[in-house]
Every structure is written in C-alpha cells, then in structure tokens.
Automatic annotation (TrEMBL):
The keyword Signal applies. GO terms for biological process: carbohydrate transport. Residues 1-22 form the signal peptide. GO terms for cellular component: membrane. This is Carbohydrate porin. It comes from Acinetobacter wuhouensis. The keyword Signal applies.
Length: 438
C-alpha cells in the first residue's frame, strides 16, 4: 500500500507544531492519534474490547560502502489492525483472553537494492519490518485461558512463534537486533510476525520466579507464500510437513535479587520433525534442532523510577550444523530509558549482532565455484556464488517519543561484511523508524 508511506510522512511533517497544539491533536499525552472517540474507546476497553491500529515506517539510505554505493532511499512499511478481547468481562470466562489482527506490508529494502551482493542469500537487513511479502496477512487469531489461579495458561489458534518463545526486546531498526532471533536463521521452520500458523502452547508457573513453556507449531510452507492476499489467509493444513516443538524455561528474579532491579532469563530448545536437507550432500535428515539463551537485566535505576535507567540484553542461538546455513547468532544490546528528565519516555540504544555462517555451507560454495572454474571472487559472472562467512551489524539509535501515539527513531547502522561476503565493502546506513498509533 503506497498510502502507508504517505501517511507516515504526513505524521513526520507535523513535528514542528507541538507547542501550537498543546493538549490537542498532537499533545504529548495523546494516547491515540484519532483520540478517545468522545470517551467511547475507554468505555469499550472497560467492557473488555480493545481495538488497535498502527502504521510503522522504516526508511534507510546508504551513506558509504556496500555492493552498490550509488546513494538511494528505500522505505518499508506495515499497517496493523487488531482487537483484543477480555472474555472474563465479555462472557464471564475467568482468566480468558482472545486476539485478532491482520497486517499489510509494503515498500522495499535497502539491503537488497544496495548493500549485499544480489547473488548472495540474505543474512541481515537494515529494515527489520521488510519481508514475508507485500500482502495482507492474518497475523493473530487465538484464545488463551488460565487454570489453577492462572498459574497454568493454555493458548491455541493462529499465532507467530516469537509471541511466546525466544521473545526479546526491540530497540532497533536492524533485523538481527530486533525481536526474536530464531526467525532470522531458521526461517523455514520458525515464523515470526507477521506470519501466523496453527499452534498450541501451555505455560506453567511452578514457582513465583520460575515458569516452563512447551508448544507445538505446524511446519507448513504454504504459510509463507507471497503470491496473493489469499496466501496470507491460508488456513488449511494440506501441506503440513511436520511440527516444531519448542521448550523454554524462564526465571524472573524477585525484587531482592540484583538490588531490586528487574530481569528475565530464558533458556530454550526446539526440535522440528520436518525433514531437512543436509548442507553438503544429498542426505535428508529426519529433523533439526536449535538452542537459545535470552537474558535481560536492568543495571541502574534513575531517580527511583523503575522504568528509567540502564538496561542490558544478550540473545544467543545455536543451530543444527548439519542442516542450517547460519550456525549461530549473538546479539548484545544496551539502552538507557529516560536519559533526560525532560524526556522520561525517550531512550538511547547501542546494539551489536553477529551472524556466524556454517563452514559446511562455505565449503559447498567453494566447491561449486571451483567446479565451474572460479578460484577467486568474480564481480560479474552470473553463475558465480559469493563465498559467505560472518556478518556483523552495529546500530546506534535514539527513540524520541512525541507521545504514546507517535514515536520517531533515527538511527545509524554499520554492516561489516554484508551478507558475509568479504569482497563487498563494509556499509554505513542512516535510518528512521516512525510508529503511529491511531
């Protein structure tokens, strides 16, 4: 939808007028750009009905380096429409909620047009919102209910995998620095937002600080088709190839730990029953596996405000070497929430993320090229396969929250060895994320 970009730019163009519209349409405490509907919105939420609409725009321009250093500007955008239902209020079903959402993505990616060698498979992306097709998608359609004083929660329906497993904070525009990490390296079996699939999971809080979750998610390539809008609403299970089964143990320390500062630590593993091809030969494996660690901790607190201060996170993934091109990923991030008393909702963040390409893939690429007579990098040959190794992504960003309804996030990114190809010049990218809640 080209209108997404136009609306995003319209939102940005009003940023010089905050004083003129104080406590009005663009006031700093505005919850939604379209307002409270004369009180009807709050009244509906009190009855259990919450409606959401948002536009996210991610723009990027290449400053230096990359495969093609001709400067250009690319924008990717997403429209999300959703509803959440508190069924304890609506129908008297205790501890039960439901969600429904649809999304539409559009735009183009700078990484594809300028940063990486077009003959290489993509590793990172300077605009995390790009991907999974420019189509409408059913992103959520699930119901969740709790038992045993809500210590046991059961969820079933259409959902993304990182909603409940391998979830992490997102303070950045770069793909590997934002959200769940598994979908970036095993995207054939692990589907992040906006893709949904049939699934069920259960989480059990067996102690005040500890919980254990397990889920079953279909592996169905039909869910990631992008030919038409009907692909985004595929509900059949005709081509299911197996199931992905994640297990995750989470620890949330009580307040007396770490000087009373909040944190969360998770370790997890998955096994996919779908057949997987070996990277180097014609062998087919019965399945594949991955392991992960997510850790997030508040390090300092600003003026006794638990929402302000310095935070740190680390996310690591180890994948099955026999079948997975990206052997592992590592992400480290620091961000300071509320750096200025006059801007308590803003944040400044620095993140580093690394893709480690499996040397079994590198060996196969080398062997393929040598069989065609290529013993060094060829910038022109269409049948040459660039040799991929590691890629490092670094981003510095500032999140400026005009109000709960409108956020701007300018950022500067550095990509070392784009797509893991050492012959491609390291790239510098300037980006801007805009999010508007209507």
């Amino acid at each position: 939808m080209k209108k997404i970009f136009k609306i995003s730019m319209l939102c940005a163009s009003v940023l010089g007028a905050q004083a003129s519209f104080a406590n009005e349409f663009w006031s700093a405490d505005r919850q939604w750009l379209l307002g409270d509907w004369n009180g009807e919105r709050t009244a509906l939420e009190d009855k259990g009905y919450k409606f959401t609409a948002s536009i996210t725009s991610e723009s990027a321009t290449n400053l230096h380096g990359g495969y093609n250093d001709n400067n250009t500007f690319e924008n990717a955008a997403q429209l999300s429409l959703g509803a959440n239902f508190d069924l304890s209020k609506i129908a008297g079903w205790n501890n039960t909620t439901a969600a429904l959402s649809i999304t539409k993505r559009d735009g183009d990616a700078l990484t594809l047009s300028r940063i990486k060698d077009p003959r290489s498979s993509t590793l990172g992306n300077s605009q995390e919102i790009y991907g999974r097709g420019k189509i409408w998608r059913l992103t959520q359609a699930w119901i969740k209910t709790g038992f045993d004083d809500n210590r046991v929660q059961f969820k079933i329906g259409r959902m993304g995998m990182s909603e409940d497993f391998n979830a992490s904070q997102c303070e950045f525009q770069n793909l590997l620095l934002c959200g769940g990490q598994l979908g970036k390296s095993i995207g054939s079996i692990w589907y992040n937002w906006p893709v949904s699939l049939w699934a069920a999971n259960v989480k059990y809080q067996f102690a005040p600080e500890w919980s254990l979750g397990v889920g079953v998610y279909e592996v169905n390539p039909d869910n990631v088709k992008t030919n038409s809008n009907s692909d985004g609403f595929n509900l059949d299970m005709n081509n299911v190839e197996g199931a992905t089964i994640p297990v995750e143990l989470a620890w949330k320390p009580q307040l007396q730990v770490f000087n009373g500062l909040a944190g969360e630590y998770k370790i997890g593993a998955l096994y996919s029953t779908a057949e997987a091809k070996d990277l180097k030969n014609s062998k087919t494996h019965d399945g594949k596996y991955s392991f992960w660690l997510n850790a997030q901790q508040q390090l300092t607190q600003h003026n006794a405000d638990p929402k302000r201060g310095l935070f740190i996170s680390f996310n690591g993934v180890i994948n099955d070497r026999a079948t997975t091109a990206v052997e592992s990923t590592q992400q480290l991030a620091l961000w300071y929430k509320g750096p200025f008393d006059s801007r308590p909702q803003d944040s400044i963040a620095l993140g580093l993320a690394n893709y480690m390409v499996n040397d079994r893939l590198t060996d196969r690429q080398t062997e393929t090229n040598e069989s065609l007579g290529y013993y060094s990098y060829d910038a022109l040959a269409t049948d040459y396969t660039p040799i991929q190794q590691d890629e490092l992504n670094v981003e510095l960003s500032y999140s400026y929250q005009w109000s709960p309804a409108l956020t701007l996030k300018p950022n500067l990114q550095y990509i070392y060895q784009p797509a893991g190809v050492k012959e491609v010049a390291d790239a510098w990218v300037a980006g801007l994320t805009l999010k508007a809640n209507f």
